[in-house]
Write a structure and sequence with these properties.
- The protein is of the alpha/beta class.
- The protein has three domains: 3-100 and 200-263, 3-Layer(aba) Sandwich (Adenylosuccinate Synthetase, Chain A, domain 1), CATH 3.40.440; 104-195, Adenylosuccinate Synthetase, subunit A, domain 2, CATH 1.10.300; 265-423, Alpha-Beta Complex (Adenylosuccinate Synthetase, Chain A, domain 3).
- Helix content is 32%, strand content 20%.
- The chain contains 13 helices and 20 strands.
- It has helices at 16-23, 76-88, 108-121, 133-142, 154-175, 183-191, 194-197, 204-213, 245-252, 285-294, 312-322, 361-366, 392-405, and strands at residues 3-8, 29-32, 41-45, 48-52, 65-68, 73-74, 98-100, 104-105, 201-202, 218-221, 261-267, 270-272, 306-308, 310-311, 326-330, 340-349, 352-354, 368-375, 409-413, 421-423.
- The chain has a ten-stranded mixed sheet with strand order 9-7-5-2-10-1-11-15-19-20, with helices on both faces. Strands 14, 16, 17 and 18 form a four-stranded mixed sheet that branches. Strands 3-4 form a two-stranded antiparallel ribbon.
- A hairpin with a 2-residue loop joins strand 3 (41-45) and strand 4 (48-52).
- The termini are close together.
- The structure holds inosinic acid (IMP).
- Residues 11-13, 38-40, 126-129, 131, 133-134, 223-224, 228, 237, 239-240, 273-274 line the site of inosinic acid (IMP).
- Inosinic acid binds at residues 11-13, 38-40, 126-129, 131, 133-134, 223-224, 228, 237, 239-240, 273-274.
Amino acid sequence: MPGIVIVGAQWGDEGKGKATDQIGERVDYTVRYSGGNNAGHTIVVDGETYALHLLPSGILNPNGIPVIGNGVVVDLDVLFEEIELLASRGVAAVERLLVSANAHVIAPYHKVIDKVTERFLGKRKIGTTGRGVGPAYSDKVNRLGIRIQDLLDESILRQKVEASLEQKNHLLVKVYNRAAIRPDEVADHLLSYTERLRPLIADTALVLNAALDAGKIVLFEGAQAHHLDVDHGTYPYVTSSNPIAAGACIGAGVGPTRIDRVIGIMKAYTTRVGEGPFPTELLDDAGEKLRQDGGEFGTTTGRPRRCGWFDALVVEQAVRVNSFTDLFLTKLDVLTGWEQIPVCVGYRVNGELVHHVPMTQSDFHHAEPVYEYLPGWTADISGARSFAELPDTTQAYVKRLEELVGARISGIGVGPSREQVVMIRDLI
Ligand code: IMP
Protein backbone atom coordinates (compact mmCIF):
# COMPACT_ATOMS: atom_id res chain seq x y z
CA MET A 1 0.00 0.00 0.00
CA PRO A 2 2.68 2.55 -0.89
CA GLY A 3 0.96 5.67 -2.36
CA ILE A 4 -1.39 7.57 -0.03
CA VAL A 5 -2.95 10.98 -0.61
CA ILE A 6 -4.45 13.16 2.11
CA VAL A 7 -6.89 15.85 1.00
CA GLY A 8 -9.13 18.32 2.83
CA ALA A 9 -12.79 17.66 2.01
CA GLN A 10 -14.15 21.13 2.80
CA TRP A 11 -12.55 24.60 2.60
CA GLY A 12 -9.29 23.87 4.37
CA ASP A 13 -8.13 23.84 7.97
CA GLU A 14 -9.73 20.45 8.56
CA GLY A 15 -6.77 19.33 10.67
CA LYS A 16 -4.91 17.41 7.99
CA GLY A 17 -1.70 17.52 10.02
CA LYS A 18 -3.34 15.45 12.71
CA ALA A 19 -4.27 12.69 10.28
CA THR A 20 -0.82 12.81 8.70
CA ASP A 21 0.57 12.35 12.14
CA GLN A 22 -1.33 9.10 12.64
CA ILE A 23 0.51 7.53 9.73
CA GLY A 24 3.55 9.63 10.53
CA GLU A 25 6.47 7.52 11.49
CA ARG A 26 5.72 4.61 9.16
CA VAL A 27 5.99 6.86 6.12
CA ASP A 28 9.22 6.96 4.10
CA TYR A 29 8.48 10.14 2.13
CA THR A 30 6.05 12.99 2.83
CA VAL A 31 5.38 15.15 -0.19
CA ARG A 32 3.69 18.50 -0.58
CA TYR A 33 2.26 18.71 -4.09
CA SER A 34 0.38 22.01 -4.37
CA GLY A 35 0.00 25.46 -2.89
CA GLY A 36 2.62 27.45 -1.04
CA ASN A 37 2.91 29.12 2.32
CA ASN A 38 -0.80 29.98 2.18
CA ALA A 39 -1.27 26.70 4.05
CA GLY A 40 -1.10 26.34 7.79
CA HIS A 41 -0.68 23.11 9.68
CA THR A 42 -0.69 23.20 13.45
CA ILE A 43 0.73 20.07 15.00
CA VAL A 44 1.11 19.35 18.67
CA VAL A 45 3.83 16.81 19.51
CA ASP A 46 4.71 16.06 23.13
CA GLY A 47 3.06 19.29 24.22
CA GLU A 48 5.07 21.38 21.73
CA THR A 49 3.09 23.26 19.11
CA TYR A 50 4.50 23.58 15.62
CA ALA A 51 2.89 25.90 13.06
CA LEU A 52 4.10 25.17 9.54
CA HIS A 53 3.14 26.97 6.37
CA LEU A 54 5.31 25.57 3.62
CA LEU A 55 7.09 22.46 4.81
CA PRO A 56 5.10 19.21 4.84
CA SER A 57 3.89 18.35 8.33
CA GLY A 58 5.69 15.04 7.86
CA ILE A 59 8.87 17.02 8.54
CA LEU A 60 8.31 16.10 12.19
CA ASN A 61 8.62 12.42 11.34
CA PRO A 62 12.08 11.48 12.62
CA ASN A 63 12.49 8.74 9.99
CA GLY A 64 11.07 10.03 6.72
CA ILE A 65 12.23 12.22 3.88
CA PRO A 66 10.23 15.43 3.41
CA VAL A 67 9.73 16.56 -0.18
CA ILE A 68 8.48 19.76 -1.80
CA GLY A 69 7.09 18.67 -5.15
CA ASN A 70 7.06 20.45 -8.50
CA GLY A 71 3.46 21.62 -8.00
CA VAL A 72 4.34 23.82 -5.04
CA VAL A 73 5.20 27.52 -5.19
CA VAL A 74 8.10 28.29 -2.88
CA ASP A 75 8.79 31.53 -1.04
CA LEU A 76 12.49 31.14 -0.27
CA ASP A 77 12.36 33.58 2.67
CA VAL A 78 9.71 31.39 4.29
CA LEU A 79 11.42 28.13 3.34
CA PHE A 80 14.64 29.07 5.12
CA GLU A 81 12.82 30.66 8.06
CA GLU A 82 10.97 27.38 8.67
CA ILE A 83 14.09 25.28 8.15
CA GLU A 84 16.01 27.40 10.67
CA LEU A 85 13.22 27.40 13.19
CA LEU A 86 12.84 23.62 13.10
CA ALA A 87 16.60 23.05 13.11
CA SER A 88 16.88 25.22 16.23
CA ARG A 89 14.25 23.04 17.90
CA GLY A 90 16.21 19.92 17.05
CA VAL A 91 14.02 18.59 14.22
CA ALA A 92 16.50 16.42 12.34
CA ALA A 93 14.44 15.72 9.22
CA VAL A 94 15.04 19.24 7.86
CA GLU A 95 18.48 18.05 6.86
CA ARG A 96 16.92 15.49 4.51
CA LEU A 97 14.50 17.90 2.81
CA LEU A 98 14.31 17.70 -0.99
CA VAL A 99 12.95 20.48 -3.19
CA SER A 100 11.89 19.85 -6.78
CA ALA A 101 13.98 21.59 -9.42
CA ASN A 102 10.70 22.30 -11.23
CA ALA A 103 8.88 23.95 -8.34
CA HIS A 104 8.16 27.62 -8.95
CA VAL A 105 9.43 30.47 -6.84
CA ILE A 106 7.22 33.09 -5.20
CA ALA A 107 9.26 36.21 -5.94
CA PRO A 108 8.89 39.41 -3.90
CA TYR A 109 6.87 41.01 -6.74
CA HIS A 110 4.25 38.25 -6.53
CA LYS A 111 3.47 39.31 -2.97
CA VAL A 112 3.16 42.96 -4.00
CA ILE A 113 0.83 42.06 -6.86
CA ASP A 114 -1.30 39.78 -4.66
CA LYS A 115 -1.94 42.67 -2.27
CA VAL A 116 -2.54 45.44 -4.82
CA THR A 117 -4.85 43.25 -6.89
CA GLU A 118 -6.98 42.45 -3.87
CA ARG A 119 -7.12 46.13 -2.95
CA PHE A 120 -8.23 47.03 -6.48
CA LEU A 121 -10.90 44.34 -6.51
CA GLY A 122 -12.49 46.08 -3.50
CA LYS A 123 -15.68 44.32 -2.51
CA ARG A 124 -15.09 41.73 -5.24
CA LYS A 125 -11.85 40.62 -3.55
CA ILE A 126 -11.08 36.90 -3.09
CA GLY A 127 -9.75 37.31 0.45
CA THR A 128 -6.39 35.71 -0.41
CA THR A 129 -3.74 35.07 2.19
CA GLY A 130 -1.62 37.78 0.50
CA ARG A 131 1.36 35.45 0.19
CA GLY A 132 1.80 35.86 -3.58
CA VAL A 133 0.49 32.39 -4.37
CA GLY A 134 -2.00 33.38 -7.10
CA PRO A 135 0.41 35.66 -8.99
CA ALA A 136 3.16 32.98 -8.85
CA TYR A 137 0.81 30.40 -10.39
CA SER A 138 -0.35 32.97 -12.98
CA ASP A 139 3.25 33.42 -14.05
CA LYS A 140 3.71 29.65 -14.21
CA VAL A 141 0.78 29.26 -16.59
CA ASN A 142 1.83 32.37 -18.51
CA ARG A 143 5.29 30.83 -18.89
CA LEU A 144 6.87 33.76 -17.09
CA GLY A 145 7.65 31.91 -13.87
CA ILE A 146 10.96 31.45 -12.09
CA ARG A 147 11.76 27.87 -11.16
CA ILE A 148 13.99 26.58 -8.39
CA GLN A 149 16.44 25.27 -11.00
CA ASP A 150 16.84 28.79 -12.43
CA LEU A 151 18.76 29.74 -9.30
CA LEU A 152 21.51 27.40 -10.50
CA ASP A 153 22.14 29.53 -13.59
CA GLU A 154 22.65 33.19 -12.75
CA SER A 155 22.46 34.49 -16.30
CA ILE A 156 19.19 32.64 -17.02
CA LEU A 157 17.75 33.79 -13.71
CA ARG A 158 18.50 37.45 -14.43
CA GLN A 159 16.95 37.20 -17.90
CA LYS A 160 13.84 35.52 -16.55
CA VAL A 161 13.32 38.01 -13.72
CA GLU A 162 13.69 40.84 -16.22
CA ALA A 163 11.18 39.26 -18.61
CA SER A 164 8.74 38.62 -15.81
CA LEU A 165 8.95 42.19 -14.49
CA GLU A 166 8.76 44.02 -17.79
CA GLN A 167 4.99 43.95 -18.09
CA LYS A 168 4.40 43.94 -14.34
CA ASN A 169 6.30 47.17 -13.83
CA HIS A 170 4.09 48.93 -16.38
CA LEU A 171 1.09 47.66 -14.49
CA LEU A 172 2.48 48.57 -11.08
CA VAL A 173 3.47 52.11 -12.10
CA LYS A 174 0.70 53.07 -14.53
CA VAL A 175 -2.30 51.23 -13.13
CA TYR A 176 -1.58 50.65 -9.47
CA ASN A 177 0.45 53.82 -8.88
CA ARG A 178 3.28 51.93 -7.19
CA ALA A 179 7.04 52.16 -7.54
CA ALA A 180 8.65 49.95 -10.18
CA ILE A 181 10.54 46.90 -8.89
CA ARG A 182 14.17 46.59 -9.96
CA PRO A 183 14.97 43.24 -11.61
CA ASP A 184 18.57 43.24 -10.39
CA GLU A 185 17.45 43.63 -6.77
CA VAL A 186 15.05 40.72 -7.09
CA ALA A 187 17.64 38.55 -8.82
CA ASP A 188 20.28 39.39 -6.17
CA HIS A 189 17.84 38.50 -3.42
CA LEU A 190 16.94 35.14 -4.98
CA LEU A 191 20.59 34.36 -5.76
CA SER A 192 21.50 34.96 -2.11
CA TYR A 193 19.79 31.61 -1.44
CA THR A 194 21.50 29.56 -4.17
CA GLU A 195 24.25 27.97 -2.12
CA ARG A 196 21.93 26.96 0.70
CA LEU A 197 19.38 25.66 -1.76
CA ARG A 198 21.77 23.72 -4.00
CA PRO A 199 22.05 20.59 -1.82
CA LEU A 200 18.27 20.35 -1.46
CA ILE A 201 17.40 20.53 -5.15
CA ALA A 202 16.45 17.22 -6.74
CA ASP A 203 14.54 15.58 -9.56
CA THR A 204 11.90 14.68 -7.02
CA ALA A 205 9.66 12.85 -9.53
CA LEU A 206 12.58 10.51 -10.23
CA VAL A 207 13.21 10.03 -6.51
CA LEU A 208 9.54 9.36 -5.71
CA ASN A 209 8.96 6.91 -8.56
CA ALA A 210 12.05 4.98 -7.52
CA ALA A 211 10.78 4.95 -3.94
CA LEU A 212 7.39 3.60 -5.04
CA ASP A 213 9.12 0.96 -7.20
CA ALA A 214 11.00 -0.13 -4.10
CA GLY A 215 7.75 -0.50 -2.11
CA LYS A 216 8.38 2.53 0.08
CA ILE A 217 5.43 4.34 1.64
CA VAL A 218 4.90 7.76 0.09
CA LEU A 219 2.42 10.17 1.61
CA PHE A 220 1.18 12.98 -0.61
CA GLU A 221 0.08 15.66 1.77
CA GLY A 222 -2.58 18.03 0.46
CA ALA A 223 -2.76 21.67 1.43
CA GLN A 224 -5.93 23.77 1.17
CA ALA A 225 -8.86 21.56 0.18
CA HIS A 226 -11.32 20.27 -2.38
CA HIS A 227 -13.56 23.35 -2.41
CA LEU A 228 -10.56 25.66 -2.83
CA ASP A 229 -9.47 23.76 -5.97
CA VAL A 230 -9.21 26.04 -9.00
CA ASP A 231 -11.17 23.54 -11.15
CA HIS A 232 -13.56 21.91 -8.70
CA GLY A 233 -13.94 24.49 -5.93
CA THR A 234 -16.14 27.55 -5.52
CA TYR A 235 -14.44 29.47 -8.32
CA PRO A 236 -13.38 32.30 -8.27
CA TYR A 237 -13.20 32.05 -4.45
CA VAL A 238 -10.50 29.41 -4.62
CA THR A 239 -6.77 29.09 -4.51
CA SER A 240 -4.80 28.97 -7.76
CA SER A 241 -3.77 25.31 -7.72
CA ASN A 242 -5.27 21.81 -7.60
CA PRO A 243 -5.35 20.55 -4.01
CA ILE A 244 -7.58 17.57 -4.99
CA ALA A 245 -6.19 14.04 -5.07
CA ALA A 246 -5.50 14.16 -8.82
CA GLY A 247 -3.29 17.19 -8.10
CA ALA A 248 -0.90 14.86 -6.29
CA CYS A 249 -0.07 13.14 -9.59
CA ILE A 250 0.63 16.42 -11.36
CA GLY A 251 2.31 18.13 -8.45
CA ALA A 252 4.62 15.25 -7.58
CA GLY A 253 5.11 13.57 -10.96
CA VAL A 254 3.58 10.15 -10.38
CA GLY A 255 0.90 8.37 -12.40
CA PRO A 256 -2.64 7.77 -11.07
CA THR A 257 -2.03 4.03 -10.74
CA ARG A 258 0.58 4.75 -8.05
CA ILE A 259 -2.10 6.01 -5.68
CA ASP A 260 -3.57 3.27 -3.49
CA ARG A 261 -5.40 5.16 -0.81
CA VAL A 262 -7.06 8.57 -0.78
CA ILE A 263 -7.95 9.92 2.64
CA GLY A 264 -10.36 12.83 2.95
CA ILE A 265 -10.17 14.97 6.06
CA MET A 266 -13.39 16.57 7.24
CA LYS A 267 -14.15 18.63 10.29
CA ALA A 268 -17.24 17.72 12.35
CA TYR A 269 -18.59 21.16 11.37
CA THR A 270 -17.56 23.54 8.59
CA THR A 271 -15.21 26.52 8.38
CA ARG A 272 -13.95 28.76 5.64
CA VAL A 273 -11.50 31.66 5.42
CA GLY A 274 -11.84 34.42 2.85
CA GLU A 275 -14.82 35.18 0.65
CA GLY A 276 -17.18 32.88 -1.24
CA PRO A 277 -20.38 30.90 -0.78
CA PHE A 278 -20.89 28.97 2.45
CA PRO A 279 -24.53 27.88 2.84
CA THR A 280 -24.35 26.66 6.45
CA GLU A 281 -22.44 29.68 7.76
CA LEU A 282 -23.66 30.90 11.17
CA LEU A 283 -23.50 34.64 11.70
CA ASP A 284 -24.99 34.44 15.19
CA ASP A 285 -23.90 33.34 18.68
CA ALA A 286 -23.82 29.70 17.60
CA GLY A 287 -21.14 30.55 14.99
CA GLU A 288 -19.18 32.48 17.61
CA LYS A 289 -19.38 29.52 19.99
CA LEU A 290 -18.01 27.15 17.33
CA ARG A 291 -15.20 29.64 16.60
CA GLN A 292 -14.23 29.92 20.26
CA ASP A 293 -14.65 26.23 21.12
CA GLY A 294 -12.76 25.15 18.00
CA GLY A 295 -10.07 27.87 18.18
CA GLU A 296 -11.02 28.81 14.62
CA PHE A 297 -8.46 31.49 13.84
CA GLY A 298 -6.13 31.16 10.85
CA THR A 299 -2.67 29.67 11.35
CA THR A 300 -1.33 31.69 8.42
CA THR A 301 -3.10 35.02 8.74
CA GLY A 302 -4.71 34.92 12.19
CA ARG A 303 -8.06 35.78 10.58
CA PRO A 304 -11.18 34.54 12.41
CA ARG A 305 -12.59 31.67 10.37
CA ARG A 306 -16.21 31.69 9.22
CA CYS A 307 -17.99 28.84 11.01
CA GLY A 308 -21.11 26.78 10.36
CA TRP A 309 -22.70 23.36 10.69
CA PHE A 310 -21.55 20.25 8.85
CA ASP A 311 -22.63 20.34 5.23
CA ALA A 312 -23.01 16.85 3.81
CA LEU A 313 -23.41 18.10 0.22
CA VAL A 314 -20.06 19.86 0.34
CA VAL A 315 -18.29 16.70 1.53
CA GLU A 316 -20.27 14.38 -0.78
CA GLN A 317 -18.93 16.29 -3.79
CA ALA A 318 -15.40 15.91 -2.45
CA VAL A 319 -15.95 12.15 -1.91
CA ARG A 320 -17.02 11.84 -5.54
CA VAL A 321 -14.29 13.89 -7.21
CA ASN A 322 -11.43 12.57 -5.06
CA SER A 323 -12.59 8.91 -4.81
CA PHE A 324 -11.84 8.89 -1.09
CA THR A 325 -11.19 5.40 0.22
CA ASP A 326 -11.40 6.67 3.83
CA LEU A 327 -12.44 9.72 5.76
CA PHE A 328 -10.85 11.12 8.90
CA LEU A 329 -13.30 13.14 11.01
CA THR A 330 -11.63 15.88 13.04
CA LYS A 331 -12.60 18.07 16.00
CA LEU A 332 -15.59 15.98 17.02
CA ASP A 333 -14.95 17.03 20.65
CA VAL A 334 -15.71 20.66 19.69
CA LEU A 335 -19.36 19.72 19.25
CA THR A 336 -19.70 18.47 22.84
CA GLY A 337 -22.41 20.27 24.80
CA TRP A 338 -24.98 21.01 22.10
CA GLU A 339 -28.44 19.66 22.83
CA GLN A 340 -28.95 18.94 19.17
CA ILE A 341 -26.65 19.32 16.20
CA PRO A 342 -27.95 20.45 12.83
CA VAL A 343 -26.48 18.71 9.76
CA CYS A 344 -27.17 20.06 6.30
CA VAL A 345 -28.72 17.32 4.13
CA GLY A 346 -30.01 19.39 1.20
CA TYR A 347 -30.36 22.90 -0.16
CA ARG A 348 -33.37 24.85 -1.22
CA VAL A 349 -32.42 26.67 -4.40
CA ASN A 350 -35.06 28.97 -5.87
CA GLY A 351 -37.75 26.98 -4.08
CA GLU A 352 -36.47 23.59 -5.27
CA LEU A 353 -34.91 20.97 -2.96
CA VAL A 354 -31.52 19.69 -4.21
CA HIS A 355 -29.15 17.06 -2.85
CA HIS A 356 -25.94 17.94 -4.67
CA VAL A 357 -23.83 21.08 -4.75
CA PRO A 358 -25.50 23.16 -7.49
CA MET A 359 -23.88 23.29 -10.92
CA THR A 360 -23.74 27.07 -11.11
CA GLN A 361 -22.11 29.65 -8.89
CA SER A 362 -25.32 31.74 -8.81
CA ASP A 363 -27.34 28.80 -7.50
CA PHE A 364 -24.69 27.99 -4.90
CA HIS A 365 -24.80 31.60 -3.69
CA HIS A 366 -28.59 31.29 -3.31
CA ALA A 367 -28.58 27.86 -1.67
CA GLU A 368 -30.41 27.74 1.67
CA PRO A 369 -29.49 24.83 3.92
CA VAL A 370 -32.07 22.20 4.84
CA TYR A 371 -31.16 20.67 8.20
CA GLU A 372 -31.65 17.36 9.91
CA TYR A 373 -31.29 17.70 13.72
CA LEU A 374 -29.24 15.00 15.42
CA PRO A 375 -29.18 14.57 19.21
CA GLY A 376 -26.03 15.94 20.86
CA TRP A 377 -23.98 14.73 23.84
CA THR A 378 -22.62 16.32 27.00
CA ALA A 379 -20.01 13.79 28.15
CA ASP A 380 -16.36 14.71 27.60
CA ILE A 381 -15.22 12.54 24.66
CA SER A 382 -11.60 13.70 24.59
CA GLY A 383 -10.42 10.64 26.52
CA ALA A 384 -12.14 8.10 24.22
CA ARG A 385 -9.73 5.83 22.33
CA SER A 386 -12.19 3.40 20.77
CA PHE A 387 -15.47 3.86 18.93
CA ALA A 388 -17.32 1.89 21.63
CA GLU A 389 -16.19 4.41 24.26
CA LEU A 390 -18.07 7.23 22.52
CA PRO A 391 -21.60 8.04 23.77
CA ASP A 392 -24.41 6.49 21.69
CA THR A 393 -25.46 9.85 20.25
CA THR A 394 -21.86 10.61 19.22
CA GLN A 395 -21.66 7.24 17.48
CA ALA A 396 -24.97 7.96 15.76
CA TYR A 397 -23.65 11.36 14.58
CA VAL A 398 -20.59 9.70 13.04
CA LYS A 399 -22.63 6.97 11.36
CA ARG A 400 -25.11 9.46 9.94
CA LEU A 401 -22.29 11.50 8.41
CA GLU A 402 -20.89 8.36 6.77
CA GLU A 403 -24.28 7.58 5.29
CA LEU A 404 -24.81 11.10 4.00
CA VAL A 405 -21.42 11.58 2.35
CA GLY A 406 -20.99 8.03 1.03
CA ALA A 407 -17.61 7.01 2.42
CA ARG A 408 -16.36 5.22 5.53
CA ILE A 409 -14.90 7.11 8.47
CA SER A 410 -11.68 5.40 9.57
CA GLY A 411 -10.39 7.82 12.18
CA ILE A 412 -11.82 10.45 14.50
CA GLY A 413 -10.06 13.33 16.24
CA VAL A 414 -11.31 13.95 19.77
CA GLY A 415 -8.80 16.54 20.99
CA PRO A 416 -5.85 18.62 19.84
CA SER A 417 -2.94 16.38 20.73
CA ARG A 418 -1.55 13.52 18.68
CA GLU A 419 -2.87 10.80 21.02
CA GLN A 420 -6.45 12.10 21.07
CA VAL A 421 -7.85 9.92 18.33
CA VAL A 422 -10.23 7.06 17.86
CA MET A 423 -8.91 4.83 15.09
CA ILE A 424 -11.51 2.56 13.50
CA ARG A 425 -9.14 1.13 10.90
CA ASP A 426 -5.55 1.77 9.96
CA LEU A 427 -4.92 4.42 7.29
CA ILE A 428 -2.05 2.53 5.65
P1 IMP B 1 -4.67 32.24 -1.81
O1 IMP B 1 -4.45 30.77 -1.78
O2 IMP B 1 -3.79 33.00 -0.85
O3 IMP B 1 -4.63 32.81 -3.21
O4 IMP B 1 -6.17 32.51 -1.29
C1 IMP B 1 -7.31 32.06 -2.03
C2 IMP B 1 -8.40 31.56 -1.11
O5 IMP B 1 -7.98 30.33 -0.51
C3 IMP B 1 -8.72 32.49 0.06
O6 IMP B 1 -10.10 32.40 0.34
C4 IMP B 1 -7.91 31.91 1.21
O7 IMP B 1 -8.46 32.25 2.46
C5 IMP B 1 -8.06 30.43 0.91
N1 IMP B 1 -6.97 29.61 1.47
C6 IMP B 1 -5.72 29.48 1.00
N2 IMP B 1 -5.02 28.62 1.76
C7 IMP B 1 -5.84 28.18 2.72
C8 IMP B 1 -5.69 27.24 3.79
O8 IMP B 1 -4.65 26.60 4.01
N3 IMP B 1 -6.80 27.06 4.56
C9 IMP B 1 -7.96 27.72 4.33
N4 IMP B 1 -8.14 28.57 3.36
C10 IMP B 1 -7.09 28.82 2.54
